[in-house]
């Protein structure tokens, strides 16, 4: 049996069934279909040791991010199709009998894959100081994700620099830039923005929403972020737009904002960082910053299944490499927190299919600028992002996760909410 065939056989044992991909080994041997859509290349034995020591998605991610394992062909075909990665990553090896475990162990032995666990790639987050969702720990987590480099984000996001779900009013029409404009405009209309209003943009990113609202709706905006690099570029973009007198960008945690009342608050792709334990406090803080009659638009990714008890050290690729301490919560948790804070929920719109399209566009942008991306952040980080964006697109397409725009209002004591009677009103 060739080295490549033994590798393929071992992974089929772990996956519990056929793995219809090509395999190429460090010795040049190949196995699998004669003309595969995707070939997994094992450049050295260390790739196998990574999986042996972490037989789940962490081991696979470490092998890919480090470059010990590579993918030639369509990455989407590897992740979707027969869901090869998922089957291996989610397989509970405790389900195997002792004969299967013995065979797998013997194959690893013959492949020379036994040995000490390799050091994880530098891009992986491991130890985290402080209590979860404390201000200092949140700042560290946000920095890990957002302070990668503004030029790198520009390659992926394009000129809009909007890092959240776009909105195609007519499916399949318009560019990503058009769809991001439409999304920001939709939020402004839902918030009922008019000239002279005061808007707080929580988690303002690179200032795109603030600039849009000030330019097209004549509002004064305070944007807050805890990313140094985001604030630096946001200030530059605000100045270039001639809006420095209308927009203030602060390096500030939302928990430290104390200059309300605001007429409206937008929170776009930010509450995923808040955490379930802090969600009601988050809602109460925003409620306190709004005037009576003011509206909040909370735009956030959500889970579509009940939350399982979380381990102390989650063994997930996203937690270790992308969003440390991030939590995707069911819509019911978000609405419940808003209502406990005193808000009246007036509308919720799911945009799941829109985010799948957005992510596919970002994948295309990253692939199309691959050499420049590697030059900016290194091959390992570029691999991390390609895997994350592709897997996320498939998660939205399959309905494993979704995204909602929840519109809530702080009502007047009389009960009046100053809301249009129908969605046509915005």
UniProtKB/TrEMBL annotation:
InterPro entries: CFA/CMAS, CMAS, SAM-dependent_MTases_sf. The keyword Signal does not apply. It holds the Pfam family CMAS. This is Class I SAM-dependent methyltransferase. The lineage of its organism: Bacteria, Bacillati, Actinomycetota, Actinomycetes, Mycobacteriales. Coiled coil: none annotated. It comes from the Bacteria. One of its GO terms (molecular function) is methyltransferase activity. It comes from Antrihabitans cavernicola.
